[in-house]
Amino acid sequence: MAIERSEEKVIVSGTANLARIPSDFATSFHPILEALEEQVVLLHLLGETADGTQVKIGHEQDNTNLQSTSIVTSGYGPEGERVANLGIIGPTRMDYSGSMSAVSAVARYVSRFLEEGF
């Protein structure tokens, strides 16, 4: 019997970009910082990712504290096997086209990187 261990870990980057958000989004700033600090929330958000790129806008999210935000996520892994997820969290007025393109491109790049064996 083989036991496979799964390590759940969140790596956060670009947090300083939150300082560039419009002032009317400032009321939503605190819940986002809490979510970044409490990695369980992010693990839950990323864990809900279905195949392909997924977008959840405002009230489509289960977490009531983050309903003034949107999240764009995608899974990645070698040869179509999803081993992890990545995403962008931001205001509901984010650039969805650009965010979806960026998340999809990074997921494809990392998947290829994993397929080629580093």
UniProtKB/TrEMBL annotation:
<dbReference type="GO" id="GO:0045892">
    <property type="term" value="P:negative regulation of DNA-templated transcription"/>
</dbReference>
<dbReference type="Pfam" id="PF01628">
    <property type="entry name" value="HrcA"/>
</dbReference>
<feature type="domain" description="Heat-inducible transcription repressor HrcA C-terminal">
    <location>
        <begin position="4"/>
        <end position="99"/>
    </location>
</feature>
<dbReference type="InterPro" id="IPR002571">
    <property type="entry name" value="HrcA"/>
</dbReference>
<protein>
    <submittedName>
        <fullName>Unannotated protein</fullName>
    </submittedName>
</protein>
<dbReference type="InterPro" id="IPR029016">
    <property type="entry name" value="GAF-like_dom_sf"/>
</dbReference>
<keyword id="KW-0678">Repressor</keyword>
<dbReference type="GO" id="GO:0003677">
    <property type="term" value="F:DNA binding"/>
</dbReference>
<keyword id="KW-0805">Transcription regulation</keyword>
<keyword id="KW-0804">Transcription</keyword>
<dbReference type="InterPro" id="IPR021153">
    <property type="entry name" value="HrcA_C"/>
</dbReference>
